[in-house]
Amino acid sequence: MSKMRVYELAKILGKSNKDLMKILEDLGVEVKTHMSSIENDVAQLVEDALTEEPPKKDAKSDVSLKKTKIVLGESETIKTVAEKIGVTSADAVKVLMSSGIMVPATSVADEKILGILSHSFDVEFDLPLDKPDPTGPGIAKPETKLGKEDPAKPTKPNKKSSNVKERDATVQNLVPRPPIVTVMGHVDHGKTTLLDTIRHTNVTAREAGGITQHIGAYIVEHDKKQIVFLDTPGHEAFTAMRARGAGVTDIVILVVAADDGVMPQTREAIDHVKAAGVPIVVAVNKVDKPNAKPERVRQQLSDVGLVPEEWGGDVVMVDISAKAGDGIERLLEMVLLVAEMQELKGDPTASPQGVVIEAELDKGKGPVATVIVQQGTLKRGDIVLFTSAWGKIRALIDTAGKNVNEAGPSTPVEILGLIDVPQPGESFLVVASEREARNAFAGARSLQRDAGMPARKVSLEDLYTQMQEGQIPQLSLLVKCDVQGSVEALCSSLEKMATSEVGVSIVHRGVGRIAESDVMLASASNAVIIGFNVRPDANAKRIAESDGVEIRIYDIIYDVIDDVKFAMEGLLKPTLHEQRQGEVEIREIFKIPKAGKIAGCHVTQGLVRRSSRIRIVRAGIVIWDGGISTLRHFKDEAREVKAGFDCGIGLAGFQDFEEGDILEAYEVVEEKRTL
């Protein structure tokens, strides 16, 4: 028996996907998403339900005869009303569908529904007495009877219905808005080529090495509907915005090359998007290549939790060739379908607010910011306030480079007239006057100065405190290890530690040094970073300190398990805190008779002491940890050597030096645990 997808039937019947899924539910047909397949006989059943005429009165019957009277109780469902009429609940639902009301048989039958059923099945309902009228205590109103009047005829609204209309008036300000889409993927999997093909402009040729150098926003039109594309240079920018509280993306298109498959960067992007809770549409690119294996890509994606809808999952995957343009129309159609299910709306009458996508200081224009308007309508002359800037808009420029007077929800525009350059990811709002903007800006700067250190994110020590306060804490962890085997073993052990009192979630796991993107994801996800035999690079350390992200480094797996266990039990002992002393780079290697190899080094940061412990880091991986046997400055024994000077270092039990190795000097001090 042939099948068709829900969205295809919705298109044929002129219904929205959500409405059609509701109809299927009311008819007892179970579907997961609008991409689910249904049999042709089910499609026919839906079509019959929508086109079937309601039962007609017997033309031969005497119209003067009284209608059948049915007494109803309070809060009767459509199903119980149908039983009292003597028809099936399916017949009642079909009648309501033909009248434009799509509700399940378990819904309470309100006055409008009862009116339609009364008219269609030629019955009269006696409703229960209303509550006493507040103007006449103890005096009940007479029985209300439905069925004597045409239900289509409007009735005089009472006070209650007026209140409903007043609430609806606010809801009516919400209008559908275009989806905002971010495209992610491995560096050479065709992300920019895809955007280039979609918007019919040549971006790739303007960018060094084909790698995107900026964040841009573009509007394309498909099937008379708009889609806003954000061209980000990677998941780092996506997460940096989220870390600042800017959830600007509605849908992510993940580009995966069919000839290359899922790469480490692909997995990182998936983890970042999952943490943000944003729907993913996968574009399997380069399917026209001879060595393309799109099914293998689907299997790899399934292994990391993205199961294709054709395999029973809920992730839309489309085979495309960005270079040839094949499959692009279908990809855009799928994006619009996913957007439709989200029911994206904005209020153009609200006070304008939005997010900075990119910003720069232009020699001719001054400070320039590209923003996405999320709510309201931004107008030329508005006074906008950011966290790090403000200004009166003297010009609005759309994505085509034209001056416009206003921009509504989901519209990207460039704004001129700011006093300074804001940061990407900052939110903005519109204030009434320049004085208000100045005062708010000055107040924010004052708070930033007074605040000093950033607010600390969650730590292991917080767990027991949260449990004592009656909360059910969720420990989010980001795990980086030196080898894949350690990743699997450590993550498996940590996930098994989840209990009814403490949840454990691993937002990302990977191999290699702790990078800047890891810290940004941890910051956005309020996660603790666990490093096993790996170290953070300089940028990662700096961002972790500024964002208050906790990084815990271990070299024994059981120490990680014990720390998490003790944190859950409130038994964390005083911690041994590593105090960084300095960093040394090996420049030369000398062989000394009877002494073995000595590393000729240059102290690049801080200092190194004879008593220091040394950790050797090669390509971001810790390969050895131990003590110093010899520290010399020229030919003399030295107690310490400071930054800017050369020294010779011999290590206790290690001589496998390589030029370029980094020696981290540190000491271990006991730090009292605080809660």
Structure overview:
This protein has 675 residues and is an alpha+beta fold. It folds into 5 domains: 3-146, no CATH class; 178-343, P-loop containing nucleotide triphosphate hydrolases (Rossmann fold), CATH 3.40.50.300; 353-451, Elongation Factor Tu (Ef-tu), domain 3 (Beta Barrel); 462-573, Rossmann fold (3-Layer(aba) Sandwich); 577-671, Translation factors (Elongation Factor Tu (Ef-tu), domain 3). Helix content is 29%, strand content 30%. The strands form 8 sheets. A 6-stranded mixed sheet has the order 8-9-7-10-11-12, with helices on both faces. Helix 9 (235-243) runs parallel beside helix 10. It is elongated. The chain starts with a strand and ends with a strand. The model is unreliable at 56-65, 130-170 and 201-215 (pLDDT under 50).
Q: Whole-number radius of gyration?
A: 33 Å
CATH class of the largest domain, named: Alpha Beta
β-strand number = 34
- CATH architecture descriptor of the largest domain: 3-Layer(aba) Sandwich
Shape: elongated
How would you briefly describe this protein structure?
The chain has 675 residues and is α+β, with helices and mostly antiparallel strands. A six-stranded mixed beta sheet has the order 8-9-7-10-11-12, with helices on both faces. Strands 14-15-21-18-17-22 form a six-stranded antiparallel barrel. It has a six-stranded antiparallel β-barrel with strand order 27-28-33-30-29-34. Strand 25 (528-532), helix 17 (538-547) and strand 26 (551-554) form a beta-alpha-beta unit.
